[in-house]
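thread from #wetlab-drylab

HS: before we spend reagent money on co-crystallization trials with fe (ii) ion, can we at least see a predicted complex? here's what I'd submit
DV: go for it
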Amino acid sequence: MWFIRRILKVSWKDKNTNDEGFADKSYRVRRKEIADIAFEYKHGQSIPRVQYTDEENATWQHVYVRLKELFPTHACKEHIRVFATLEEEGGFTEHQIPQLEDVSNFLKRKTGFQLRPVAGLLSARDFLASLAFRTFQCTQYVRHGAKPDHSPEPDCIHELLGHVPMLADPKFAQFAQELGLATLGVSDEDIEKFATLFWFTVEFGLCKENGQLKAYGAGSLSSYGELANCLSDNVTVKPFDPPTTAVQEYKDDDLQPILFVVESFDDMMTKMRQYVATIERSYDVSYDPYTQSVNILDHNAALEGVSRGLQNDVDTLIHVMNRFNKPV
Ligand SMILES: [Fe+2]
């Protein structure tokens, strides 16, 4: 499994000299061509469109069709709901790979998240920090066609089928952003713990629905091998508990043997907030959606700004509740 390589700064060249993609010169050229889009991309620009080849679209279709067979029984209801919407209005079809620009616009309409093209190599700190700004660093290239069920690195099939549907769910998007905000200004040791929490939630998390386990992690939802495995007897399932989950060792080169389950997204959010409150850092932050910036809460004026925003929301809530309760 490759997802964490982006997080642990290990390069494709360093780790995968035997991979089909590395051995195929034309594939390496194609990878560079698509990576250059990310290297040249500037914030605020439209994401350039990629003319995917028939082979790349066939790889996408191979994975898409197989996963769709498993989603009804294995995916959480949030993923199923958004995936249907993506097929209706987000350009998702088994026949061709959607363009990041279109998907990013879909996400902006749903939760304010946006995609930013990335070549594939990022530190955990940089990757997690971008979540604080509701930005998801997203690869645009496709895995090698010789192994459609496996990619040595995250590719757009993983991002689009696994991450995007979950980031279009308001509650999950809030969780992802709070996880990103929690990493700002923490030590390298805590970054490792947050990266591990990311692994066991955003990448491979399980949740409960009517007493049954379902997958909400993108690593499971974008790989039919992982998706079948995650609800099988091969996996030891533990209750999500951030202090212990954060130090759980994991495998990044095989099917997951240990996973963590949350009772609900509310449960996950509550436990994560309690954990974040125990992490030492020199300042607290809040996100300003109007300026899409992060404010450091280290002086009274900043606190007054947060307080004023909260008061406005409470006033609006009281007003609406009074109106609803008023007899017509
Ligand atoms: Fe991922």
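DV: The first strand starts at residue 114 and ends at 117.
HS: ok that's useful, forwarding to the group
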